[in-house]
Design goal:
By secondary structure, the chain is an alpha+beta fold. It has six domains: about 160 residues, no CATH class; about 130 residues, no CATH class; about 90 residues, no CATH class; about 240 residues, Rossmann fold, CATH 3.40.50; about 80 residues, no CATH class; about 90 residues, no CATH class. It is about 40% helix and about 25% strand. It has 30 helices and 41 strands. An eleven-stranded mixed β-sheet has the order 18-14-34-19-33-32-20-21-23-22-31, with helices on both faces. Strands 6, 7, 8, 9 and 10 form a five-stranded mixed β-sheet that branches. The longest helix is centred in the N-terminal third of the chain and has 46 residues. The radius of gyration is 36 Å and the shape is globular.
Length: about 1000
Amino acid sequence: MVEIMMNRGQGRESKEKLKELLRELFQFDCKELDFGIYRIMNYKRQEINDFIENDLIKAVEKEFEKYKAATQKEIKEEFGKVKKELISTLGESALEVDGEVKDEFRGTPVAQTYQKVRKQLEEIDITEDIQSQVFNDLYNFFFRYYEDGDFISKRRYSSNQYKYAIPYSGEEVKLHWANFDQYYVKTGEVFKDYEFNSKGWNFIFTTVFADVEVGNIKGGSRYFFLAPARAINIDNQNKVCLIKFEYRPLAERDLRLYPVKTKEGKEKTTGITQDELNQILKEKILKLITSTEPKAILLETEDEKSFLERHLYKYTHKITSDFFIHKNLKGFLERELDYFIKTEVLDLSNLDERHIARAKVVENIGKRIIEFLSQIEEFQKTLWEKKKFVLSTDYVITLDRIPGEFHQEVLNNKRQSKEWEELGFEIATPSARNDERRVSLRGTKSRSNLKLPVDTKYFSEEFKETLLEKLSQQGSLDDLIDGVLIKSENWQALNLILGKYKGKVQCIYIDPPFNTGTNEFLYKNKYLDSSWVTMMYDRLDLGRKLLKNDGSIYVRIDYHGNHYVRSLMDIVFREENFRNEVVISRTRAKQEVENQFIQQTESLFFYSKGNQMILKSVERERGPEWHSLLHFPRADDKPRIILDKKFYPPRGRRWALSQERIDRFAERGKIRINKEESYVDCHGKKVVGVPELLYDSEIVGNEWLDIPGYSQAQHFPTENSEILLKRVIESTSNEGDLVMDFFLGSGTTTAVAQKLGRKWLGVEMGEFFEDFPLARMKKVLYGERSGISKEINWKGGGFFKYQYVEQYEDTLHNIEFPNEERAQQMLKLFGEEEASEYLMKYVLSFETEGSPSLLNLKQFEKPSDYKLRTISGGKAEKITGVDLVETFNYLIGLKVSKYKSLKKNGRKYIFVLGERNNRRVAVVWRPAKDINLEKDKKVIEGNTKDFAPDDIFINGDSLVKGYKPIESEFKALMAR
């Protein structure tokens, strides 16, 4: 009896331990977080809790009953057979009345078999011990793969000798990283200001980074601390309270400044959590705030937590959450579950029915939990992979490219004039003869206002639309545009534009953040390299798809990641397409470093997409010198014709240069015959005069230390030099080709591409987007003289567009549950099993359908009014319009030729005409509610007739023959 009670106690303990782990897996400890996936988890918390508390336990019991019944049937049949055999062999007298074998027959083989099966039949009930083992098995399985909010792909062995293994398919050498089958979600400026308001006060948490000396760090985890200098700034007049933090590893001094205590009151030196530090942060902040009003607000309590505590918790968790999304969590966990059962649940030395039943229950219940977990992970993956909306589109164009009818309106725009002044364009007084304004860039000679960059964001929507229509009358609009700047996390941007630019990019140059462990790259504790490699792999993969078949890519990296980049590039671009590791200059500084040589170089890893590629030789200038024509060892009597004379090589030698190259030198006047020297040719004849070549330049190899790798012209910390980008772009592209940089930084790549007559695409997500790449490109269009401008005599002029794109955090923020009530009504019609199946597989996808970020088709009735609630700007929530026109152009991969807007029948029509897959395409947008379809048909056909489209897309209903609804195409393409 005591043993039974102990087993039951252990069973309850195992059950509760599993429940607690599941609550952790489903983020129950983050119930106060109201952002990202936590909003969704909190919204469905009751259903999840019911699953853990009730459905899961019922499922375990049901599984045991199922296997119990199946086992009973099998054993009863077996028992009947062995009993019949015993009676046939020994006779009925061998059995007692109660079915026991009489003592004198128990030693016989047939009696022993009978007794064994009879005992199995008696012990068929599943014991508490076996149920306890099942809960322990499930706990051990899920616990081993879950770490800090993510499922990490680490197969674990029970063997002490070999703890880990990686997936392996027979490769000779394989690069593996812990998060290889996940998306890296956070990629850059995630330490945005966190703001909250109360009673007229605006509270701002901002993060300031700090470098900590090597050797003075406790462990690899990173934490939030108050900034050491002026951590609190109070502006009583404007009611603003600014609190500054550092995010860095724990240093020795922090143990004194932030003394965390154990339950016993001892000072804690290891295993410190951010939540423990938050309690000390709270006290320090309140002590530093001397102003009464904001302090009182922060001290207000709700649910036993102060206003400050709640926001500290949200802030520190928001920064460090949502790092990875599994690409196939279900597949991964099911494979590992199968391996776990075979190696750690089944005991080959004891394959009795109870243990087989235990293994089957672990498998079935494990798969139910996996199904539930993977539903949430798959939902996150859907939101991540979803093509994002273009939020806004504007254009920058120099005045010389704008039709004259717009000039006066441009010059009278005060906001535009103010920007010109802020950018350093000094507007002079109008001349006496006419009203033409003249401007100059500070420090340069005056020039005509025809190179002034005009930004359409300062003008009305009507101005922008009319301008685009007029410009598209001059030629294909996309051909007129020199480049596109996109503010977005780069994976999202690449994923969005893939339909339009797949196979169109000639050259990619990227200078990604190096995985140094500082503020350049945010990473999960203990997974710096794995996070970085995961981030790079997915973006390189999309970059490869964008390249033309004869395109190429340069990746700049230093010693922190060069070994990983080479391996990654071999995987993505294949090692046979490796071309060079180009050595470039890091610094010429004479700084001293300890225990190592000064790092003076970095690398460009240069790969082509395939065998075909553009690669033009690059020459560097040098002082003019004459050198004898080289000849190498190896007998060869083939002569060369040099300045109409035949020259044989010396005996036992061969000429180093081909006849073709010698002829090219001769055409350029860089070859001569030195009359004062002589040698004996291979025929034993003395030849007077030696051929000489003039070297005033030399072919550049993979050593580019003759040019600077960095620049400080834009005062940007990691600004690439224009001279470096000039060499990259000129060597691997021609004028008019498309050049791309999706780690744009200060904008050097796009600036040089513009100056060299290339088309360009630039992607940057940083908060400095407006102050650096956008402002820089405006100066480039004006004709600024830095970088390579003087060398190539750059005069300015140009036309580009820039766009802001919805981000993953915006997508999460806009998730709604418009179908929840309908779903709950449907569930009442289901049986218990069907309802559980729905909950595990379909609840999120069904109930959130129609959310603004997942496409609310009702809003297509008035396309210009489509809205999202955005938070990616780093400030408070903002209601933002969506550019459905530009988003759809990307989704269908449309090359835009003409743009036209007009008002007819009280409605505004937008016509976009272009080409896709060698078919002429027209896209028509207009308010569709209460529309007269007959009149509408006449408007559409009248404005598309001359274009004669092969395909026509229209939002809403239409009577136009053969039209395709925009909504269905939009929805299908957005989810790909």
